[in-house]
Amino acid sequence: MAEDGIDDFALAKRKAARQLGAARGDEMREALPDNSEVESELRAYRALYQAEEHPERIAELRRIALDAMRALERFSPYLTGPVLKGTAGPYAEIDLQLFPESTKEVELFLLERGIAYSTYEARRFSGDRAHAVSVLSLEWQDTPLKLSVFDPRDERVALKTSQAGRVMDRAGIGEVGTLVRDANPRDADRPT
Q: Is the full-model pTM beyond 0.85?
């Protein structure tokens, strides 16, 4: 994950298992570490081998995320995923959750500004239910940006990584602004 820029825990674990020649199935899944163990080791690796460049990259990704969030402010944006957690790799995409009245509002916003995007549906989980959400993929300041568009009622519900998974951490504009300022106080007033 640290060297290849993979941010998907399941993909990284499958790749590691294949490289080690592990058998497939339940036995392999039981032998693999859980996501929190992987995240802990990833942080330790980056602290040891990427002590200078990793914090700089996270700070830059957060600045870009904050800029996008400010532009998308009317859609109640939240930063989530590896950029928020500080575990994002060198090729990470920024994950934002939006809560507009409709997906079309976001699409019109992008079209009016000439921002090219692609769209697909993904399953997301809130409470004890799974539902489809639109995901818009685009480039923002030459960085991949993924916008997951939720129903506005879901803004107050705990969103999870899977039906049985843990609740996803997320941060609003104010919280991301604080993270950016804390990373480099000189950049606090710098336009993004």
A: no
